[in-house]
# Entry
Amino acid sequence: MLTALENLDLVIALRRSVWAYPIISWLHILGIGLLFGSIAVVDLYLLGLMRKLDGSAVRRSLVPVAIAGFCLAAATGLLLFAPAAREYLASPFFRLKLLLLLLAGGNAVLLRNLDGRNIRHAAAPLCGLASLALWVSIIFAGRMLAFG
# Structure
């Protein structure tokens, strides 16, 4: 199945293009920046380190940016994965990154379910700390995948 993915016409064209892969990589980094930059502020707020900010304004303005960044990073990540799918799947850093992404998603769902309308829920600081740790680890695993 991975070989079939690597041999799709779109993936072959991506691999042969001088510009496509670097542009997709740049878009991936942009998505990560949008995601982490916005979610870090939300997490720091949850940790009580940005008390002057209005919690509902933080949620209304930054969570959509984080979601957009995640969508961009996920879409471009799939395009970066496809040309060397078998190689990436064999990497422990890639598998770790996928596991951490699942945990970060679970953490976000947990926070959303706990939060309701009260962003100051008792578990919110733990979710914020977990989110920061998970996203830093995801970025590190991704860099190790690229350069390790």
About this structure: The chain has a mean pLDDT of 92. The CA atoms of residues 41 and 105 lie 17 Å apart. The radius of gyration is 17 Å.
